[in-house]
Amino acid sequence: MTQSALMRLVPDAPQALCDILDGARGAVEKPIRAEIFGLLRFAQHGRSLAETHQAVSATFWAATFRPRLRSNIRVLREAQHYIGIQATTGYDISPAAEWLLDNFHLIEAQLKEIHEGLPRSYYRSLPVLVDQPLAGLPRVYSVAWAFIAHTDGAFDDDLLTRYLSAYQEVRDLSMNELWALPTTLRVVLIENLRRLAERVATNKAAREVANLCCDRLNTYTVKTLQQLLALLDKRAVGRVFLAQMAQRVQDRGRTAQIDGLEQILEWLKTVMPDLAAMQAQQRVDQTADNLSVSNAVNSLRAVADADWPDIIARTSELMRLMLTSRVFEAEDAATRDRALHSIEALAKRSGKSELAVANILLSLMRGADPVDGIEPVVGYWLHGDGRQAFMLALGVSDRPARKWRLMSRRIRLPLYLGALLLGTLGLVVWVTMRQSVGPLGPGSPNWLVVLGAVLMIFPASEAVVAVVNRLISESARPRHLPRLALAGGIPAEHRV
Prior knowledge:
The chain has about 500 residues and is mainly α. Helices cover about 70% and strands about 0% of the residues. The protein has 23 helices and 2 strands. A two-stranded antiparallel sheet has the order 1-2. The longest helix is centred in the middle third of the chain and has 41 residues.
């Protein structure tokens, strides 16, 4: 309805312009932009934000930002398409529009990165906020939103580290939340780019509408222009339209005699008494948008290139606590991650915090008898012979899981050999039962059928072994051996 009304009022308007300015889509949202904070102010904001956050465990039906993400990509594509048309037809475009055109491939690639970096199962494990305006969304989403807003989308790992550390002085963030932060930052940056791109495109479209009207100014009345302004106000671009109209009408009024020009000028003065201030504000907004777009695009690259294990090591209370163990500190990143994930899982199972589980683990490690002067490694208590003592210290029964692990070890070989035997026999029987092929056709002697079946056992078993081994290798999760980082090389006393 709104779109057809716009085309009726501006017959020369192209379809892409009408789509961009369709009032049924609502007002263009403001960019995610707030007061820029320094180190001290960010630390203060992190603490105050943590005090306001009330989070609960997510339910299966909790809202996700995936529908909004798909909408963001769709709107970005539409805005990029419209800006591209404007650029190819000779119109001047802003630096923000050039950034969007030149880096759109990078923006689109984020959709795959986000889906891989934050699968639904991982998303459901994140605590969600209770209070508005982000109720039902992960707490880390609000943390990322505030960081983007108060840096104008510019990524700075020192600021982020200070901010997260200050936040956790009041409220702990789980390891899941910290590892979800890189992907969540991408999500918020895409949200901001959507708002900026839509704003750039709609402002450009509103100016084009004003130009089309001024090209046929003698066919417009004040009443028609009021109707057009009402339509553009639904997309929050009415003031952009008026500013462009005022500039064009003043220019045309000096060079041509137009019927009704005086009435239009009076109407413009009535609806826009502060023309100079409005034009100045629009220049300020355009400059700010140019900077915000460039910051967001550069930050998408910076987030991908950042050393997140180092950032998390500096900000995670759990990581800092575990690094007090010399053995844990000496381990490589993959081995540490495995231990941290086990601590997360045990924290959920026991109902204790991750820090409480880590403290119990460290107390057991320090109280154990050292071997050759070295305390037992973390994996000994999490996955090895010390697990039973650790579970008792946590107050969690590990008996069912222990029984299942013992039983699975016992049945692995019989199950494997049984699968090979049944598969081989099944294949041989299936082949011999197909009596319409070769020498084993109808009427063949029984001894020939048996001989053929015996001769087929070996090649059939090879085929079955290959299939079973492939299924096992594709479905079984690899188990990595614990490793030391040895960042300075192998010590002399350990060389062989």
